[in-house]
Inverse folding.
């Protein structure tokens, strides 16, 4: 039976390089019979965590009522989570950071996920390591999880990733997941 795969697109740029790599991953994953879903964070209304920690003592319900509740349910239900981000000042995008922090409310239900990370940056692989570490930090907080693959996409302008090796790398990772 196929796995449930959730991809998170966190670039504010429509059709950007990291989103293009996610689509490649999803193409491969669907060809292998998996069930996929993609969350586009720029289309969601998600406020930053206010650190009230109410969710830690009320069974995991966030006091903020926005689109994060549906994202948490998708994250909890997924077998495989693909996080993608552009590199912004050697870090993940603000959109991805906000989503990760708000996962505090779903944290107690998050277990045993397979993670894949996709990053894109103008300055090559070396510029993506701290960003990969940001995403690894989230995975490390999900008990029993494993990071199964990473895609490093070197590109600056929208569309520049097309034709590069990362396109096939993302496709093959999706195919094999
Ligand atoms: C605010 C901002 C900060 C950026 N910081 C970096 C950086 O630190 N290192 C780098 O190599 N590229 C940096 N870039 C370039 C992007 O990472 C690059 O254009 C990437 O392909 C964007 O991915 P996307 O098309 O998925 O949005 C930055 C771009 C922006 C808009």
């Amino acid at each position: 039976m196929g796995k449930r795969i959730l991809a998170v697109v966190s670039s504010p740029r429509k059709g950007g390089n990291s989103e293009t790599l996610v689509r490649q991953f999803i193409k491969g994953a669907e060809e292998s019979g998996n069930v996929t879903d993609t969350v586009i964070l720029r289309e969601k209304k998600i406020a930053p965590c206010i650190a009230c920690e109410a969710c830690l003592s009320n069974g995991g319900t966030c006091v903020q009522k926005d689109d994060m509740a549906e994202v948490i349910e998708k994250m909890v239900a997924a077998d495989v989570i693909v996080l993608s981000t552009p590199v912004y000042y050697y870090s993940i995008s603000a959109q991805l950071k906000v989503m990760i922090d708000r996962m505090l409310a779903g944290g107690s239900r998050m277990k045993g996920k397979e993670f894949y990370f996709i990053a894109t940056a103008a300055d090559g692989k070396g510029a993506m390591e701290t960003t990969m570490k940001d995403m690894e930090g989230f995975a490390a907080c999900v008990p029993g999880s494993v990071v199964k693959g990473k895609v490093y996409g070197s590109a600056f302008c929208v569309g520049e990733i097309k034709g590069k090796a990362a396109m096939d790398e993302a496709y093959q990772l999706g195919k094999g997941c």
DSSP finds five helices and five strands in the chain. The CA atoms of residues 49 and 108 lie 16 Å apart. Residues 4-45+77-97+109-176 form a domain with the Rossmann fold fold (CATH 3.40.50.360).
